[in-house]
Design goal:
- The protein has 162 residues and is an alpha+beta fold.
- Helix 1 packs across helix 4.
- The longest helix is centred in the last third of the chain and has 31 residues.
- It is globular, with a radius of gyration of 16 Å.
- The termini are far apart.
């Protein structure tokens, strides 16, 4: 008797922003160190500290990493698709070996001259041990990180410029 493969649904989050697409993409990538909640969502935080920085190298194959308090780098992932200002995809394994990686796609969809729909899709839970349980932690995590922290930073940066 053959058992059907289980499938863990991806996480999908959507965020509407009243900013141009290139602006939304730039804040997400170049300014990640300014909006990422490193005090709670970083390897350094798990060790009782704060990272010196968080970096997304701007190219396909670029690393995503945290600079720990001692200056060492801790890989979080690797960019698999770099298409500014339209799309960013990456494998994602902050604080874990690459064998525990999932996949994140972030699309920046131009709705109008100054409005962008940001769509995040986090998938690949079937590929890691305990993926369904890990996914459950990311559902509220992405609400906080994407909707609250990133969305709040985009709105604040945009207000400063207008």
């Amino acid at each position: 008797m053959q058992m059907a493969a289980t499938s863990v649904e991806p996480i999908e989050k959507n965020l509407s922003l009243k900013v141009p697409r290139a602006f939304a993409f730039r804040i997400f990538t170049e300014e990640i160190h300014m909006w990422w909640p490193a005090e709670t969502h970083s390897v350094a935080a798990g060790q009782g500290g704060l990272p010196q920085g968080i970096v997304i190298e701007p190219q396909t194959g670029g690393r995503i990493y945290e600079v720990l308090p001692d200056g060492c780098h801790c890989d979080w992932g690797k960019v698999t698709d770099w298409q500014p200002p339209e799309r960013l995809s990456f494998i994602w394994h902050p604080g874990h070996p690459e064998t525990r990686a999932t996949i994140v796609h972030v699309d920046f969809i131009e709705v109008g001259a100054s409005e962008t729909q940001v769509r995040l899709r986090h998938e690949g839970w079937d590929q890691i041990e305990g993926g369904a349980e890990v996914r459950q932690q990311y559902v509220p995590g992405w609400d906080h990180v994407l909707l609250d922290c990133y969305g709040g930073a985009v709105r604040a940066h945009h207000q400063e410029q207008t």
